[in-house]
């Protein structure tokens, strides 16, 4: 009942979980006027967070995500040239032995990877 009495004054519509419940209760008591009040304002707290989330993800992708390096480029740059040539020679010679992992990633060990990171300029 507090939500019905002070909902618009206290900012209940910001959280749809706190606004929709009292509106449904008020609908059973007062009728459909609770949904038409303030030019059908009730749907804005339900729809606006969904639209805002999609818009925020799009902005993040444009301003931040587009400038991050790809994971494939980082993996290739961390592998030394010697390891790359060894792997290429093994592939040409017919593969690896069954006990020997094909790369440090296959063995589950990350200690052989270099800890150097590329610096964006």
Automatic annotation (TrEMBL):
Belongs to the MIP/aquaporin (TC 1.A.8) family. PANTHER family: AQUAPORIN OR AQUAGLYCEROPORIN RELATED, AQUAPORIN-9. GO terms for cellular component: basolateral plasma membrane. InterPro entries: Aquaporin-like (IPR023271), MIP (IPR000425), MIP/Aquaporin (IPR050363). The chain crosses the membrane at residues 40-60. Keywords: Membrane, Transmembrane, Transmembrane helix, Transport. Residues 104-113 have a biased composition (Low complexity). It comes from the Eukaryota. One of its GO terms (molecular function) is glycerol channel activity. It is a multi-pass membrane protein. It comes from Strongylus vulgaris (Blood worm). Residues 73-121 are annotated as: Disordered. This is Aquaporin. It is found in: Membrane. Residues 87-103 have a biased composition (Basic and acidic residues). Its main location: membrane. Residues 73-86 have a biased composition (Acidic residues). Aquaglyceroporin that may modulate the water content and osmolytes during anhydrobiosis.
């Amino acid at each position: 009942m507090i939500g019905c009495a002070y909902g618009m004054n206290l900012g209940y519509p910001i959280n749809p979980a706190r606004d929709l419940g009292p509106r449904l209760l008020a609908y059973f008591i007062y009728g459909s006027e609770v949904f038409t009040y303030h030019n059908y304002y009730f749907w804005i707290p339900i729809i606006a967070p969904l639209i805002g989330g999609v818009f925020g993800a799009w902005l993040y992708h444009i301003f931040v995500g587009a400038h991050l390096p790809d994971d494939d480029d980082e993996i290739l740059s961390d592998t030394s040239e010697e390891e790359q040539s060894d792997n290429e020679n093994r592939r040409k010679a017919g593969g690896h032995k069954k006990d020997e992992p094909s790369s440090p990633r296959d063995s589950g060990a990350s200690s052989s990877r270099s800890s150097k990171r590329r610096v964006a300029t």
